[in-house]
Amino acid sequence: MKAELLAALRNAEDYVSGQELCESLGVSRTAVWKGMNKLKADGYQIEAVSNKGYRLVESPDLLNAEELKSFRNTAWAGKEIVYYDVTDSTNIQAKRLGEEGAPHGTLVVAGRQVAGKGRRGRSWESPEHDGIFMTILLRPEVRPREASMLTLVAAMAVAKAIRAALGLSAEIKWPNDIVLNGKKICGILTEMNTEIETINYVVVGIGINVSNQKFDKEAASIATSLALEGGTKIHRAKLIEAVWEQFEAYYDSFCRERSLSGMKAEYDSFLVNKDRQVRILDPKEPFNGIARGITKTGELMVETETGIRLVSSGEVSVRGIYGYV
After folding, report:
1. CA distances from 196 to 77, 143, 220, 254 (A)
2. Which end of the chain is more exposed for a tag (fewer CB within 10 A), N or C?
3. Range of weakest confidence among 240-244, 278-282, 311-315
4. Where are the alpha helices (H) located in 16-132, listed in sequence order?
């Protein structure tokens, strides 16, 4: 009942009476009172005034199933939420759920990962309390070769949510990194299970550095966090909801168009390397050029001396000529 109480308090413009809560939740006054005391014990500041009711004054930065559900305002993303205090990887758990038949939009969130990974098999730091580690399970009716565009859809959603919720100028480093002031704050890993020309499911994993104050020696030169870049009072559950609200809109556009044509112009405006020199680290043939934006199917357009070359994500990485971006 805690999730329902929290949602009612958050949706109320002012005080919400105990009687209203009893009627809307179908429980007794005693149950409401006990529920409020449990929330207070968890760290929520709740004001109770006779003849007025209850008012939520302040919420701690908690991450659990009840907190996530209390913020949920999406149509289908996160309709089912699976939360772990600790797990190996939210992508691993989402794939397991996919095999077991979990529905489209199932969201897996963890307080900490012990085997988090990024693109090309790299490890991803997942310290407890400092980040957001989550994966959504999707069952899109698109062809397998179109699924890679979902990484760009997710990147757009994360960058837009950070800008809207925190007022920080998040940008995208194609195809799967979100950056602030030239340093990485978020990585995205998309994996899928297919049969010839049919997708069984896709999982999109997102890791965001939220409250990290330091990074190991290898990551320190390229990584940062929302807190270090000026984000104040960051509430992880609220930011998670903001991401999936944005994701739903971009995902629905992608499914309608079967391409990124509906978000291409906006994506280009968020692209940190747009009209800047980049080095394409293709294992077969590295080359330099100027990034000119994306195509409607998600390739990066790179202008070279011999013309425009289209770069697909796969095993290719993009770097700035003089650094990470």
Report:
1. 27, 9, 41, 21
2. N
3. 311-315
4. 18-25, 29-41, 65-71, 90-99
